[in-house]
Structures are given as structure tokens and as C-alpha cells.
Amino acid sequence: MLVSPADHPGERGKVALLFEFTLRQDAEVELLFDPGNRARDTRDWMWLRGPLVIE
């Protein structure tokens, strides 16, 4: 999922995300948050606020 608050004002502030998936075998899951297409790592910020549930 791409969140782009610079291009979509409705995505400024809190954005709730829900990802549901099933792993068919043992594996690793990687969550990646990067500075986006403008590569401004000094201006783009994010934080996780619970609940983060991994079952």
C-alpha cells in the first residue's frame, strides 16, 4: 500500500492500515517504510501505534 499525503491531502494525519494474509509455509514477513518517491528522509515520518497483532 502506498500512502502519499503530499499528493492526497486526505492521507495526512492518521491512516489506519489493515493487512490480512496467510503464510502457506514458515517464512519471514518484512514491513518496509521508506521515504517514498521523493526520497526526503528528513521530512517523511511515520510511527506505529497499536495494536500490532501477529498471530
Describe the 3D structure.
The protein is largely without helices or strands and 55 residues long. It is 0% helix and 0% strand. It has no helix or strand. The radius of gyration is 14 Å and the shape is elongated.
- Mean model confidence by pLDDT: 78
Unreliable segments of 5+ consecutive residues: none
> What is the SS-derived class?
little secondary structure
Helix content: under 10%
Note the total helix count. 0
Distance between the termini: 21 Å
Q: Characterize the main sheet.
A: none
Number-wise, the strands total 0
Overall 3D shape: elongated
Proportion of beta-strand residues: under 5%
Radius of gyration from the CA trace?
Answer: 14 Å
Oligomer: single chain
Summarize the SSE layout with pairings.
Blueprint: no helix or strand
Concise overview:
By secondary structure, this protein is mostly loops.
Notable traits:
55 residues; little secondary structure
